[in-house]
Amino acid sequence: QVQLVESGGGLVQAGGSLRLSCAASGRTVTSIDMAWFRQAPGEERELVASIKRWNISSRYYADSTKGRFTISRDNAKNTVYLQMNSLQSEDTAVYYCAAGEANIGYSYWGQGTQVTVSS
Questions:
Q1: 56: pLDDT strictly greater than 80
Q2: What is the C-alpha to C-alpha distance for residues 74 and 30, in angstroms, rounded to an integer?
Q3: What is the rounded CA–CA span in Å between residue 116 and residue 92?
Q4: Strand partners, 38
Q5: % of the chain at pLDDT higher than 90
Q6: Which of 95, 115, 107 is nearest to 3 (CA)?
């Protein structure tokens, strides 16, 4: 079993930055694919960014977040981060950390953290 705990969400003005953290337990972040998803009210959950277990340089970003968001991990802290810069109102959503097999699906999910961007 993998447990994921997100933190770092909050209210920020447009143009501002936030860093989300996802602390993992039960597996190391180097042994499992990790990702961030988000879900806005009335919208489907979408993949924001992901990072592969074997290749830290293999990262995916949604078109809407490229150049603004950065996914990274700290192996010593067993934590994955999502640095979000130049935030826009459209980034307002609940952000979820996920872990699993990127090619099959993510089996483990955190509880979510709210990010609200005011314009």
A1: no
A2: 9
A3: 5
A4: 46, 95
A5: 89
A6: 107
